[in-house]
């Protein structure tokens, strides 16, 4: 995408911002002026570096991002903002590349930039994402070289303890925060409450919410409410969950789809269907649009009721949101369990037209369903397609399928299946035992030898 004429630094930034394709954006960044017009070096503005580095990092084009960073390091006209290098550390953290994240942190001074507690926090968070707890402890040993730990630092450390299930250490870190005169924020309490909910300590979580509002004058946010509400629903405390919902309304905290989905799902599970449908109506009236999870909840309920007609209707309604494979798998699995494997196969075959490709779970459920109800020809086709796509069928399912073919004496299908299994390297000792046993039981030796030759996979 080299330009035909020179563009200004300001124009380059505008074009980079507009370009959605990171590869094309990089080509534009590298060639802002034609080669034959390069009378003097192009003066890249800092913003152009920022834009291209973020685009490449989000696209995980790390080799190209490093090339741009190397070029940026050579610039002497400006110091690189710490925030940009924190972005790079975060990109490596999300990509589970902790060593690269640590190397970027250590290289910050070479960009004429000072490491502060902000970049330390970013590194700690990246290491936590990668579950590099030992490396986190190493960073903490020298943290005072970069500044005084702040609320963000302690929030990350509390989260690390909660994720590891060590609530005693989480509380110890919280108490250290208070001793050091650092003011906890809503994220601090939300992180602790999340940990308590994960560990089933709902009473302690509810008390902490009250302490937060009374002693620290902080208002719960939607994340904190959502975590509490989900925890209460998980232990069947729907009364408490609805009191949390009412409190959110009083405090003018907007209820999102996650809140409604959790409550609707919980009501369905305890058989309070009318209340669930009523809440669904309330959700729509409040202006909160159903999302894919909402449709998953509805489909799951109708499948449980074996009301497949309504499940199909919900699936059709969700097409505007591009239903995911989970939606289809719920219906396919339920149909197969009810002996409607041919109907499940029809839905399965229709998935690509609806813009959703079947996954390995789709194939396995349908294959097992077709086998269970002796639709052997259809099952053979699904098995062949599964192997072609590189999906591994479970050994138990294959063994049962071959056993059924042997009992049926369907030598034509058996031959096709053995060939496919051989190509996919899925033949095992049990399968050969069944086939040899079948051949030995055949009355005519000539037919048995002919069958054996047919089943021998090249």
Automatic annotation (TrEMBL):
It comes from the Eukaryota. Gene3D superfamilies: Tetratricopeptide repeat domain (1.25.40.10). InterPro entries: Mito_RNA_Proc_CCM1, PPR_rpt, TPR-like_helical_dom_sf. Keywords: Repeat. Pfam families: PPR_1 (PF12854), PPR_2 (PF13041). One of its GO terms (biological process) is RNA processing. PPR repeats lie at residues 150-184, 185-215, 221-255, 256-290, 291-321, 324-358, 359-393. The keyword Phosphoprotein does not apply. GO terms for molecular function: mRNA binding. PROSITE patterns: PPR. Belongs to the PPR family. P subfamily. This is Pentatricopeptide repeat-containing protein. It comes from Acacia crassicarpa (northern wattle). The lineage of its organism: Eukaryota, Viridiplantae, Streptophyta, Embryophyta, Tracheophyta.
